[in-house]
Amino acid sequence: MEYIKSKIRDVVDFPQKGVVFKDLTTVFKDPRALHIIGWDLSQLYRDKGVTKVVGIESRGFIGGSILAFELGAGFVPVRKPGKLPADTISASYKKEYGTDVIEIHRDAITEDDIVVLHDDVLATGGTMLAAYNLVKSMNPKKIYINFIIELSALGGRQLLPADVEVSSLIKY
């Protein structure tokens, strides 16, 4: 993970003054780093029977797609309103800098699915909790939650359900 950490760029005062943003685009553009992340993420779930990986817009699409490919699972996007073409369900949530809404296709998850919810960074946890609630409403067999980076000081993990396995590759 030290190699991955060395590729993460800190962007000061983004998206607002006082925030130090952990930018993963510098990780994603590095072939070795991207391979390491894909491998390490997949090892967490290799023997868990995962059938779907749900990635949260937009950086969650990158790691989520790689994870789905590595596991031989399907990929399901969670998007902002109006971006998905078929019937959706939605959830609103509070995030670090305001409120937002996310959607998922109503038929994306079945009761037979074992799901990994993936996003790039766990900060305050609002986005992931909303995505979890959407997926949970579809009654899959099991849900796991995963991040590349966790910003522990922001306490986002405490917002997530205690009975769900939550993993992060890197913690700050």
Topology, please?
Layout lengths: L1 H6 L1 E4 L7 E4 L1 H4 L2 H15 L6 E5 L2 H13 L2 E5 L9 E8 L2 E8 L8 E9 L3 H11 L5 E9 L5 H4 L6 E6 L1
Parallel strand pairs: 3-4, 3-7, 7-8, 8-9
Antiparallel strand pairs: 1-2, 5-6
Give an overview of the whole structure.
This protein is of the alpha/beta class. The chain has helices spanning 2-7, 25-28, 31-45, 59-71, 126-136, 156-159; strands at 9-12, 20-23, 52-56, 74-78, 88-95, 98-105, 114-122, 142-150, 166-171. The strands form 3 sheets. A 5-stranded parallel sheet has the order 4-3-7-8-9, sandwiched between helices. Strand 5 (88-95) and strand 6 (98-105) form a beta hairpin. Helix 3 crosses helix 4 (59-71). 33% of the residues are buried. The model has no long low-confidence stretch (mean pLDDT 96).
Strand order of the largest sheet: 4-3-7-8-9
C-alpha Rg, in Å?
A: 15 Å
Main pleated sheet: 5 strands, parallel
Helix/strand-derived category reads alpha/beta
Helix content: 25-40%
The overall strand count is 9
Give me a quick take on this structure.
The protein has about 170 residues and is of the alpha/beta class.
Offer a few descriptive terms.
about 170 residues, alpha/beta, 5-stranded parallel beta sheet, two-stranded antiparallel sheet, 6 helices, about 35% strand
